[in-house]
Amino acid sequence: MAPSSSQKRKALKASHKSTHTHRKKILALAAAFSAAAVAVASLVPYVDKVPQHTSILTGHAWVRELLTGHPR
After folding, report:
1. Cα 18–15–11 angle (5° rounding)?
2. pLDDT tens digits, residue range 2-12?
3. Whole-angstrom distance, CA of residue 10 vs CA of residue 58
4. How far apart are CA 5 and CA 11, in angstroms?
5. Of 65, 45, 68, whose CA–CA distance to 56 is shortest?
6. What is the per-residue pLDDT across 40-69, written as a single tens digit (0 to 9) for each?
7. What is the predicted pLDDT for the residue at 41?
8. CA geometry: angle at 33 spanning 21 and 43, to 5°?
9. Sign of CA dihedral 9, 10, 14, 17
10. DSSP code of 9?
11. Least buried of 8, 36, 51, 55, by fewest C-beta within 10 Å?
């Protein structure tokens, strides 16, 4: 026996609700991953530091190197 139109309507409504719920879950998961990516990207400069101002020179030798450049 073929399903009636009300049964078809109920099945279609249930299918639509299931699809909508699935899309909401995927959207929430994508938002969570995006937030995590932003958090990681903003913390990298604080974790992966590159030493700066490590010259052994002081005083006149330091100023001379600044003005003339490094010999290499």
Report:
1. 140
2. 777 787 787 77
3. 82
4. 10
5. 65
6. 999 988 888 888 878 888 899 989 988 998
7. 92
8. 155
9. positive
10. H
11. 51
